[in-house]
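Invent a record, attention on tokens:
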Amino acid sequence: MKEIIVVAGATGHVGRPLAERLLAAGRAVRAVARDAEKLKPLAALGAEVRKGSLHDPVFLTEAFRGANAAFVLTALDVKAPEINIDQYKKAESIATATRAAGVNYVVFLSSWGTDVPEKTGGVLGCRRLEQLLDETPGLNVVHLRPVWFMENFLWNIGLIKMAGINGLAIRPESPFSMIASRDIAPIAADYLVHLDFKGRNVRYLRGARDYTMTEVTRILGAAIGKQDLKYVEFPDAIFRKGMIAAGGLSPHAADMAVEINRGIDSGLINAEPRSQSNTTPTTLEEFARTTFAPAFKTAPDASFSEKFGGMFLRTYLTLTGRRAA
């Protein structure tokens, strides 16, 4: 009988390709997610599927039962009233299930910034699960710590269509690391196929190189045919309001988004020095061409009222001294 590998969050950007890779490698996969319909393609490939919530330690213990290894994550719910509390509940549930089911190997999709005890937004949930897994006797664990996801820029499509600008609460010339989620699954799969790690391990994943938001905006703009697209550093209050109104974030999630932006901008959230081990292949230029541009093309155009609001936003930013870069 093949040893079972559990993949939590198996319908996500990392979980789905990871499960597919493990199945292609001949491993027995138990795919766990909340949406039964989205699990069907993995079932068709031969995965055993379990529908349930990461908040439920009883469900997770049964899902982990008999498994030798697991891939886990504390998925961020941007609509949760208190996202840190939501993540802490998931962390406790995952750690409880890991111990109760006797899982021997865990690969955890953590985050950069978990070495910092405060002012890191939703990263604190990852920090908590790292601690709980480290405290589990006899567990062999790899904490994968990817940097900023390039997919986060997809949230800015609405802003670009509405106001004709790109913006975050990060200074235009502050370089930082960013990664495409597609580069994480092959690394996680390699650990889970070979299971040759012992004790506690940390591996940062830093993307292909660092970019400033000025460079990001130029690259994204070129990919969508807007060579004149400009970047504006938003005041915290305006950025927060936009995340709630346009992004659908809860007020607390928006506060945490501001906190992460400022943590990156200040250098508080950072990764280990770049090396061959932590550098991944996908450049922002490739991501912009293969992911961002198609998403921008299929996204609905802004309405007249939205464009009017965008004009008002640009005027306000100009009057408050926030010049486009």
